Amino acid sequence: MSERSDDFLFDQVTINVQAGDGGNGAVSFRREAYVPHGGPNGGSGGRGGDVWLRVDRGLNTLLPFRRKKHFKAGRGKHGSGKDQNGAYGKDEIIRVPPGTVVRDADTGELLADLVTPDQELLVAEGGRGGRGNAAFASSTNRAPHFSEKGETGQARRLYLELKLIADIGIIGKPNAGKSTFLASVTAARPKIADYPFTTLIPNLGVADIDERSVVLADIPGLIEGAHAGAGLGDRFLKHIERTRVLIHLLDGAAEDPLADFQAINAELAQYNPALARKEQIVGFNKMDLPDAQEHFENFVRNVRRNVPDVRHDVPDIRRDVPDARHSIPDLEVIPISAATGEGVRELLHGALAILDALPPEEKIVETETMPVFRPTPDEEQFTVEREGKAEGVSIFRVRGVKVERVAQMTNWDQDEGVRRTHRVLQAMGVNDALRAAGIQEGDFVRIGDVEVEWGEGSL
Ligand SMILES: Nc1nc2c(ncn2[C@@H]2O[C@H](COP(=O)(O)OP(=O)(O)OP(=O)(O)O)[C@@H](O)[C@H]2O)c(=O)[nH]1
Ligand SMILES: [Mg+2]
Fold first, then answer.
1. Residue 363, in any domain of the structure
2. Are residues 170 and 279 both part of a single domain?
3. 216 and 240 part of one domain
4. For residue 324, what pLDDT is reported?
């Protein structure tokens, strides 16, 4: 992945997401007239907000992430007296375009391929709220003087990559008129100009035709060597992978439209043979110009002869038929003028007919890395290791989902709360494991960000 192309293409980005921390639980007691010792009524903190990705069909680039790469959900409100629980933290919803492939940036694990509009993915979970002292009241402790802190929200780095999803991809050399065509059949208003590489980010448009909607992607122009990255071609070609039918647009007024046609097809084949096998229909553009009119007949006559060569990698029994050119599937060539609108509906209809003839289920969803199977970690499990030794004092590290959560949610300045935590850790077997590991009076124990001194009876 080159930084160079990221600057303006921006179809891949790493972002940071941080879910909200849970609110803290409160310590509070009822105060009523004539009741000298009211019961505990400290409410619990609210859950922290989650971070979600949501597919927004109106987006077709990751460009907004150029400015904003950090996302944070709201923290839960703290609990308070009179059994008031804190409000939940606000969720953070990050909008992404359809076709966003989501990976954990640190492990590379594929989390999801977000292809359907409004699809949602939970990417960081909010921390739970800390319990207030009311929640700890029991027959043995009717007036607990402690509460929990809120749990820290999950933080994560995500790698997002956009691979557009469209029914029809419009491909061709730079300046062929792809964007003009898109604009003529959809409401999209891409930039159009009389120089190559006007389009740098694929444009999406929706064509309403025959009472249905089809999504078209105007892919930036391809040049020779595209498959190897020339003109950023490899970045554009990957978008073609997720289109089902190709409209191959030619500048009919160019010097040699047939050579252009073959060059592009060769790039497709070299990038990925499956691309060369994708169904195509040709739009022979700029027919309003005399040069194009002049080239048209010749193109149609010769293109058929050349198609089997272009699709040389297709295992097709028909290639063995002596006169292959009559038996290859007909490549439709529609003369059009994207500028005047002549023939554009016909071209679109032709592409639709091909689309409809395709088998309904064609895999477009990313599977190149299957999600890794991870058994849900046993929360109770933990490990103990000696982390270091300094001036005769050892430091032990305890790791585990539950131990870390318990330690993090403890208010270490509340004696009763600290004692309760000790009991929980004792019951989990943490103390025994530390003794077995050789811990001595005066050593330190680290759990998450917490560090406590070890004394017999203290932990
Ligand atoms: N005469 C004529 N000019 C056209 C036609 N279609 C497009 N053009 C012109 O050709 C030039 C290129 O058109 P674009 O639509 O920007 O071409 P493109 O294929 O999107 O180009 P890139 O984005 O650079 O790959 C513009 O000046 C258009 O006005 C047509 O049918 N007839
Ligand atoms: Mg363009």
1. no
2. yes
3. yes
4. 31
Give the total number of structural domains in the chain.
3
Q: Are residues 149 and 202 in the same domain?
A: no
If asked whether residues 220 and 344 sit together in one domain, one would say: yes
- Give average pLDDT by consecutive 10-residue segment, the chain, 459 residues: 45 94 96 75 97 90 90 98 96 94 92 88 96 94 94 96 88 95 91 86 85 88 88 85 92 96 93 90 97 94 63 40 39 95 95 87 51 65 90 92 95 92 93 92 92 73
3-state SS, the chain, equals CCHHHHHHHCCEEEEEEECCCCCCCCCCECCECCECCCCECCCCCCCCCCEEEEECCCCCCCHHHHCCCEEECCCCCCCECCCECCCCCCCEEEEECCCEEEEECCCCCEEEEECCCCCEEEEECCCCCCCCHHHHCCCCCCCCCCCECCCCCCEEEEEEEECCCEEEEEEECCCCCHHHHHHHHCCCCCCCCCCCCCCCCCEEEEEEECCEEEEEEECCCCCCCHHHCHHHHHHHHHHHCCEEEEEEEEECCCCCHHHHHHHHHHHHHHHCHHHHHCEEEEEEECCCCHHHHHHHHHHHHHHHHHHHHHCCCCCCHHHHCCCHHHCCCCCCEEECECCCCECHHHHHHHHHHHHHHCCCCCCCCCCCCCCCCCCCCCCCCCEEEEEEEECCEEEEEEECHHHHHHHHHECCCCHHHHHHHHHHHHHHCHHHHHHHCCCCCCCEEEECCEEEECCCCCC
Ligand 1 contact via 335 beta carbon (within 6 Å) = no
- pLDDT score for 458: 55
From the CA of 249, give the closest atom in ligand 1.
19
Could you tell me if the CB of 283 is within 6 A of ligand 1? no
Residues 243 and 324 reside in one and the same domain: yes
Ligand nearest to the CA of 173: 1
- Is ligand 1 within 6 A of the CB of residue 198? yes
Question: Contact, 276 vs 314, CB < 8 A?
Answer: yes
Residue 172 CA, closest ligand 1 atom number: 19
Structure tokens, 422: 């000790």
**Which residues have CB under 8 Å from 329's CB, separation 6+?**
none
